[in-house]
Design brief:
Layout: E1 2-3, H1 9-21, E2 28-29, H2 30-38, E3 51-52, H3 54-69, E4 73-75, E5 87-90, H4 92-102
Parallel strand pairs: 1-3
Antiparallel strand pairs: 2-5, 4-5
Helix pairs in contact: 1-3, 1-4
Length: 103
């Protein structure tokens, strides 16, 4: 079951920033962000876990790449093992940025 978010790109970016500000274990995977975005749309007790629409997966990927270009995230896990996408990690600059954006 695919869900379509009604958020603007700016609202979606804020949701992604909130997810990343609370994230402690790394490396992070793009699919984890998608799952967290879809989670509020899950009906308790339902065996069906919603998934983002292809359009919203694409929009969220664009936002993640924007955060990479801005220096808040880096591709790869930063652990010497998961060195490319879909893994990414938060940079020290990103930790400061997400701490400020979550308050």
């Amino acid at each position: 079951m695919h869900i379509t978010l009604k958020d603007t790109d700016e609202q979606l970016r804020q949701k992604i920033e909130k997810i990343l500000s609370g994230r402690v274990s790394e490396p992070i995977q793009v699919a984890t962000v998608w799952s967290r975005l879809a989670r509020p749309h899950h009906t308790p007790g339902s065996p069906h876990v919603p998934d983002l629409s292809p359009q919203d997966r694409g929009r969220s990927q664009d936002i993640i790449w924007d955060l990479i270009i801005e220096g808040h995230l880096r591709p790869g896990g930063g652990d010497g093992q998961n060195n490319e996408m879909p893994f990414f990690h938060i940079t020290p600059k990103g930790r400061e940025y997400f701490a400020k954006s979550s308050s």
